[in-house]
Design goal:
By secondary structure, the chain is of the alpha/beta class. The protein has one domain: Spore Coat Polysaccharide Biosynthesis Protein SpsA, Chain A (Alpha-Beta Complex). The chain is 38% helix and 15% strand. The chain has eleven helices and twelve strands. A hairpin with a 2-residue loop joins strand 6 and strand 7. Helix 10 crosses helix 11. The relative contact order is 0.14.
Length: 343
Amino acid sequence: MNLLREFYLSLLVILLLVCGFLYQFNLKSSSLFTYLYSYKPQQGLEAVLSQGRSIVFLETSDRTKPSPLASCAVESAAQVYPERPVVLLMKGLNNSTQLPSNLSDPAFSFFSEIGNVYFFPLDMKRLFEDTPLFSWFAHVNVSAQSNWLHVSSDACRLAIIWKYGGIYMDTDVISIRPIPEQNFLAAQSSRYSSNGVFGFLPQHPFLWACMENFVEHYDSNIWGNQGPDLMTRMLKIWCTLTDFQEVSDLRCSNLSFLHPQRFYPISYIEWMRYFEVWDTDPSFSNSYALHLWNYMNQKHKTVVKGSNTLVENLYRKYCPRTYRDLIKGPEVSATREMGTGEK
């Protein structure tokens, strides 16, 4: 009996020690588990994107956590498209096991609670396989390229939407209502296309032609040459463009060219208006999303809590978790480091 009692006591001590160890480990690594949940490794990139309905964001720098503005873009998309996967591809996550350097970042914590948000590594070489961009990427001297982060982002967005379909958005685009179109480009102004938002069904021939033109007319020294300029060049080949009438979209062949009001009701010349106080907040009733022109924000204008600026009210309405968790104190930058998808 004494031996049996000693055995049970020893077993109890071991169980208590194990429980104590697991408790301490859980405290120290709770952020790790939070991130692993948000990363959703049980579903691979192919499985998520193969539905052809994803909302896709890109980060082609080495950063491993989204800026507050990128966080707002992702959250607002997840809110507007609850039945569609919202995917952020980050080059900084360079393999399937690498985790962000800051596991306790609040953005990953609240994204873990949003079931349709996914983070995946961006593998450019693999992405460009079986596209006209593969040979270009294999031979390009990255260190010698001007605007490489933006040029590579321009290439990636073409390849991923051609391969899988869905909607691409820059990480400074705040979604406010669903886009009802499948094959579309967004007019930045009359007869000039943006590449900050576009959507197509998988393997659409327009995007294949864009990738061919990307390679044929490649010049990283010209800002926008592989981006909005490319989309505009190809649109002119694809369609006979006319001026917009009132707030109507243009239809051409099997794609739509959406009125500037859909995404650019505030033009790039007036981008500062996002940081002003309006007498009455606009309804943006003709818009599907708002492009905040973060590339223009070279002086890093900030979201000031309690300022009642348009951008603060947009955060509060369309990305409330970002506003709650990332916009703290009297003044926090909306941009901090600019993401490469924020043009």
